[in-house]
Amino acid sequence: MKTQLFQAFTERAARFVVRASLFPPTSALTGWHHPTTRSDRTLRHDVRMSSAAVDQIAEGESNVEEVVSQAENQVSSLDRIGKATIKVLGVGGGGSNAVNRMVGSDIDEVEFFVFNTDAQALLQSPVKSENKVQLGEKSTRGLGAGGNPAIGEKAAQESRAAIQNVVEGSDMIFITAGMGGGTGSGAAPEVAKIAKSLGVLTVAIVTTPFAFEGRLRRQQAINAVEELRNIVDTLIIIGNDKLLEVMDPNVPLSDAFKVADNILRQGVRGISDIITIPGLVNVDFADVRAVMLNAGTSLMGEGRASGKTRARDAAIAAVSSPLLDVGIDRATGIVWNITGPPDMTLFEVNEAAEIIYDLVDPTANLIFGAVVDPNLNKEVQITLIATGFGGGSSNNKQQLVPQVDELPRVPVQKAQEEILVERTNGAESTGGGGIVPNFLRRKKKLISQFLGMKF
């Protein structure tokens, strides 16, 4: 038994030693040390420790089940070599609901957690029990925060050790929360502070309230968004009111909130898929980190289409999304992902890329991933995250991303039109006082069809 166990383990460990040698400890471009890379010395230590565990089994000096569990944990740690540890944390009622809907969905290689002051809501969550964290067990007694962010903040501070235990060891975390409520608004910034203090890449994807939810909730959302903006690496704000522009007027109220949750899910999946799923175009975690670290306020667009020009149409839908209130040419970084069925071609990917690259500043840092999903039936999906708005100035940030109660009603097509027309190098006159850049003249029929421009 001893010989068989040791042989099986050492063979597996040897494979991981070879795999680890493929990952340099330091990126020559960014100087960032890969968090999941482990030295040969550490690997040899793991092998020796597990060899000792096998000896204990053979000699009967320890409980067999306990030692086998320890050996499995050592193997599991080796399994993580070359993989980024990504966790999604749903904070409060809205954030937890979003995570609940992500569980069992098409998001792979990601671990889900829910943090809440409402014990009853935690019990009903489909997230596995060990990944549920009750915040402020003493201060709230599991009864919720009563819509008061101060109570949510205090609850998170009380449960700091439990939060830190979840976040520790992560390479990247997503914080999903609905801004405006007590736990989401109060606890999400505290969770973000803990993550940042541990050096974890921290991305918050939050929703802001519908207008009918009231002024108090809206103001609490504004305050929470501003606090998060100063803590997280990347903040993606999804205004629920903006979703009304793409919803069927007859959609039931419950489904309206599901639409918001699906947007959150797509944002998480769009980024995590690039990192975790081997695709047609592979991108490593260091690349994504370079774009999203300290990126500030960010915007998200999502598009999907089928048919002969599905990739091109999905790209146009993404850049003309109502969620993109500002032209993406102002972004300093773009992370975008295209997902399609097995018959998606390189030509289609190139068509989508052309649409996006024509709108982006040439100096922007672009990260791109292409993933094949056999579950997609002739449909192509594109998720685009535009980062780095505001350039570090709080005044600029407020101009580029208006507050919740000031969100513009001007269609994004108008904003994108203005961006495109500004690119006038080598442009010709339209005869009506306007000008058309050369690259737009080449795509005249395409752009006029989808963005409604008049030439």
The CATH topology of the largest domain comes to Rossmann fold
The main β sheet shows up as: 10 strands, mixed
Q: Give the tally of structural domains.
A: 3
What is the CATH architecture term of the largest domain? 3-Layer(aba) Sandwich
Radius of gyration: 24 Å
> On the 0-100 scale, what is the average pLDDT?
76
Number of strands: 12
Provide the low-confidence segments as ranges: 8-50, 74-79, 391-455
Kindly, what is the distance between the CA atoms of the first and last residues, rounded to a whole number of angstroms?
A: 79 Å
Give the overall shape, derived from the CA principal axes: globular
Please give the count of helices.
19
Please identify which CATH superfamily of the largest domain we are dealing with. Tubulin/FtsZ, GTPase domain
- Helix-residue proportion: 40-55%
Percentage of residues in strands: 15-25%
Strand order of the largest sheet: 3-2-1-4-5-6-7-10-8-9
CATH class of the largest domain: Alpha Beta
Structure description:
Residues 8-50, 74-79 and 391-455 have low confidence and may be disordered. Helix 4 (92-102) links the parallel strand 1 and strand 2 (111-116). The chain starts with a helix and ends with a helix. It folds into three domains: 2-79; 86-277, Tubulin/FtsZ, GTPase domain (Rossmann fold, 3-Layer(aba) Sandwich), CATH 3.40.50.1440; 301-451, 2-Layer Sandwich (60s Ribosomal Protein L30, Chain: A), CATH 3.30.1330.20. The longest helix is centred in the middle third of the chain and has 24 residues, at 253-276. The chain has helices spanning 2-21, 40-59, 64-79, 92-102, 119-124, 137-140, 149-158, 160-167, 182-197, 215-229, 240-243, 253-276, 285-292, 310-319, 346-357, 394-400, 412-422, 438-442, 444-451; strands at residues 86-91, 111-116, 132-134, 172-178, 201-208, 234-239, 296-306, 333-340, 365-372, 379-389, 428-429, 435-436. Helix 1 (2-21) runs antiparallel to helix 2 (40-59), helix 4 packs across helix 9 (182-197) and helix 4 packs across helix 12. By secondary structure, the chain is of the alpha/beta class. The protein is built from 19 helices and twelve strands. The strands form two sheets. It has a ten-stranded mixed beta sheet, with helices on both faces.
